[in-house]
């Protein structure tokens, strides 16, 4: 009976954690149709993705204190209701700017599901059970980018892009009902918890003063921004330049997700023989080389569909090694402020991801070049951070295989 109860708990928590990835990826095959219907361009429509990233970045910092102050379920309900309302309002948009604003609000809502699901795992499961539950959640989150664009491609081809938001809205309604009737309140509200800015900012400043944190958090976040550059420009590159169908684009996106997920899983095995520090160094060097060759090919117009897919797969494979190890190294020095450090790193990742997607949208949508240009810039800036940042780390706290975080 306990196993059955745990299964339903993990299923609900996994669904909550997957709402954000589904919201990011499911509408990507509709960029061309959205631009046509709203009399805009694909580059401008891509700003609705950027606004979603900004919303996630801000929301990461917002919900942590709220969950500690008011318990887990009330902020979760608020976020889901906000998400549902903004999803259905997306059906009525007549202008691309309305979509950009509503996607920001939708992201603020979806943050509640991601942060609450992680917090509730810590509350509801023992220390021995938690790693297995987190692994299940991470697998759901990792698989979401494979399923979402493929499902979105078929849905958009059959019914139109608006039905993606109908689907997401009803998905959130089911989650709200499951949360109300099946999820227990796992944390009692703390009336003494302060929501004043000063103590919260003091915690964040303590984290930011740690050289190992800011060195590896920057590496993780900057290289991750290359992923967002790919995500935001991929609809134009594959569907407009290479004239791939909506469903074909979904399958390409799924295939490239396998490269990222596969390398992150392989990373767990490699950690038996190499330290996180070594893996980050070599994977980052490889990423710099691959992205530079990709850029040279793009500038000289030597690319075709298959070469483009190949170069992106190599970049994402390197990211699958860099991200979990850099994240683990960034969090390794902390025990007391681990929550603040995690929230800061998440906010930094999404903030730089938003910046990368905006940068890509500023360039011509008739060229592949902007994608490898942003990817290459991100890889080389991350390498510079690694070379400079290590000089300030007095005593490096090594991350063990157990503390390395699964990429997602």
Detail the topology: elements first, then pairings.
Elements: H1 2-25, H2 31-37, H3 42-45, H4 47-70, H5 73-89, H6 96-124, H7 130-159, H8 162-182, H9 197-208, H10 211-241, H11 246-270, H12 276-299, H13 305-331, H14 338-362, H15 370-389
Helix pairs in contact: 1-6, 1-7, 1-8, 4-5, 4-6, 4-14, 5-6, 5-8, 7-11, 10-13, 10-14, 10-15, 11-13, 12-13, 12-15
Fold and architecture overview:
The chain is mostly helical. The protein folds into two domains: 1-186, MFS general substrate transporter like domains (Growth Hormone, Chain: A), CATH 1.20.1250.20; 196-408, MFS general substrate transporter like domains (Growth Hormone, Chain: A). The chain contains 15 helices and no strands. Helix 4 runs antiparallel to helix 5 and helix 12 runs antiparallel to helix 13. The longest helix is centred in the middle third of the chain and has 31 residues, at 211-241. It is globular and about 60 Å long. The model is unreliable at 400-408 (pLDDT under 50). InterPro entries: Efflux_drug-R_Bcr/CmlA (IPR004812), MFS (IPR011701), MFS_dom (IPR020846), MFS_trans_sf (IPR036259). It is found in: Cell membrane. Keywords: Cell membrane, Membrane, Transmembrane, Transmembrane helix, Transport. Residues 9-397 form the Major facilitator superfamily (MFS) profile domain.
């Amino acid at each position: 009976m306990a196993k059955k109860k745990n299964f339903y708990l993990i299923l609900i928590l996994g669904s909550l954690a997957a709402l954000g990835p589904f919201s990011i990826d499911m509408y990507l095959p509709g960029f061309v149709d959205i631009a046509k219907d709203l009399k805009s361009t694909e580059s401008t429509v891509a700003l609705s993705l950027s606004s979603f990233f900004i919303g996630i970045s801000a929301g990461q910092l917002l919900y942590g204190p709220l969950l500690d102050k008011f318990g887990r379920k009330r902020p979760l309900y608020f976020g889901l209701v906000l998400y549902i309302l903004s999803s259905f309002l997306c059906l009525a948009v007549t202008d691309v700017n309305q979509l950009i604003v509503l996607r920001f609000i939708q992201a603020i809502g979806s943050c509640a599901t991601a942060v609450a699901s992680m917090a509730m795992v810590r509350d509801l499961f023992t220390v021995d059970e938690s790693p297995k539950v987190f692994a299940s959640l991470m697998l759901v989150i990792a698989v979401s980018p494979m399923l979402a664009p493929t499902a979105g491609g078929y849905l958009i081809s059959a019914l139109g892009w608006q039905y993606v938001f109908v689907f997401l809205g009803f998905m959130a309604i089911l989650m709200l009902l499951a949360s109300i009737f099946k999820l227990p309140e796992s944390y009692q509200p703390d009336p003494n918890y302060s929501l004043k800015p000063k103590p919260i900012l003091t915690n964040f400043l303590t984290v930011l003063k740690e050289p190992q944190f800011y060195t590896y958090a920057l590496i993780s976040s900057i290289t991750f921004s290359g992923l967002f550059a790919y995500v935001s420009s991929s609809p134009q590159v594959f569907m407009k330049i290479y004239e791939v169908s909506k469903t074909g684009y979904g399958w390409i996106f799924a295939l490239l997700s396998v490269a990222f997920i596969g390398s992150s899983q392989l990373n767990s095995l490699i950690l038996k023989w190499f330290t996180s520090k070594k893996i980050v160094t070599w994977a980052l060097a490889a990423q710099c080389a691959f992205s530079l060759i990709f850029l040279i090919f793009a500038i000289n117009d030597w690319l075709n569909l298959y070469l483009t897919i190949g170069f992106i797969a190599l970049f994402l494979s390197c990211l699958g090694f860099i991200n979990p190890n850099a994240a683990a190294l960034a969090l390794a020095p902390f025990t007391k402020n681990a929550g603040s450090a995690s929230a800061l790193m998440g906010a930094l990742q999404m903030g730089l991801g938003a910046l990368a997607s905006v940068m890509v949208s500023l360039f011509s949508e008739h060229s592949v070049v902007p994608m490898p240009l942003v990817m290459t810039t991100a890889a080389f800036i991350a390498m510079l951070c690694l070379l400079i940042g290590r000089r300030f780390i007095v005593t490096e706290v090594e991350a063990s295989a157990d503390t390395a975080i699964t990429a997602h």
